[in-house]
Amino acid sequence: MRRGLFGTVQGTIQSIVQPPSDYRPISILPSFKELERRLLGTKIESVDRLGKRVVIQNSNDDLLVFQPKMAGLLVSDTPPNEKHVRLVLKIANAPSEKIIYWDQRGLGNVKLFSRTEMEEFLRAGSIGPDALSIEFEQFYLAFRDCKRPVKPTLLDQSKVAGVGNLYASEIVHACRISPLKNCNELGRKAWRKIYDSMRSILTIAIEHEGSTLSDGTYRNSKNNPGSYQNSHKVYDRAGELCFTCGKNLIERIVQSQRSTFYCSKCQK
DNA sequence: ATTAATGTTCAGAA
DNA sequence: TTTCTGAACATTAA
User: Fold this and answer.
1) pTM score > 0.85 for this model?
2) Residues A141-185: pLDDT tens digits?
3) What is the phi/psi pair of residue A32, to 5°?
4) How far is CA A55 from CA A94, A129, A146, A199, A205, in A?
5) Which residues interact with strand B by a CB < 7 Å criterion?
6) Is residue A168 within 8 Å of residue A138, measured between CB atoms?
7) What angle, 0 to 180 degrees and rounded to 10, lies between the N-to-C axes of helices A136-143 and A188-207?
8) pLDDT average, residue stretch A44-62
């Protein structure tokens, strides 16, 4: 797994700061005080991705889990602005001195787990295996009997963790499968295509450091935009020509209250 | 000035 | 059990 700058963060947590804010505070569990009590003076051992979460493990085996949701991100240095900075971990000894949690909408949360609590959480099954580690058989089993349309179901984090809204549209387009097709109407071969496309699209998107959409919210750990938006085949391309068939226009529909983009001519 | 939209997910209800 | 709806929030574009 590619981890970017945060994969190399080392050092001791010197202080934790929750900047004064005009906005409602984000959820910090069990509490800000408890974060200070259990993290100050401990060393950061690793920074990893788990589905859409970022997990920081410290030398006491506690796990600090960031769930940025719609509009949050972690940066090492400069945030997009100061007013939406929600939490800062100051690190003694470079390479990076800080880990900054920035969240424009404040929908995200931060939660501290003991190792036991994390094992319990994973066992409970609200998040499934990561999209880049799950094996095909397990992936197929998770989806094949579901009666819902394929695209919204790919967003179900309990089946597979890590596929977000724009990637779900890109994945089914790459397979030439309609987002409206029900999961249980697709055969094993179709699911194999979806599995392969999910892996390749997410892998390439990570290499491109993600997709920075027109609102500019998403940034990488150095506060630079990603470039995968330039490779989108359907997302945010309503009314534009489909690259695959070259004849039809990309359509936008709403499924489960989320936008879906697809080509009704080449996706069946 | 409203409304709808936004890399999301959670509880609660049908 | 599975699936759907609405809410949490800040900001921008239409």
Assistant:
1) yes
2) 999 999 999 999 999 999 999 999 999 999 999 999 999 999 999
3) -60, -45
4) 20, 15, 30, 21, 20
5) A 51-52, 67, 69-70, 107, 126, 155, 157, 164-166, 205, 210-213, 215, 217-218, 226, 254, 257-259
6) no
7) 120
8) 93
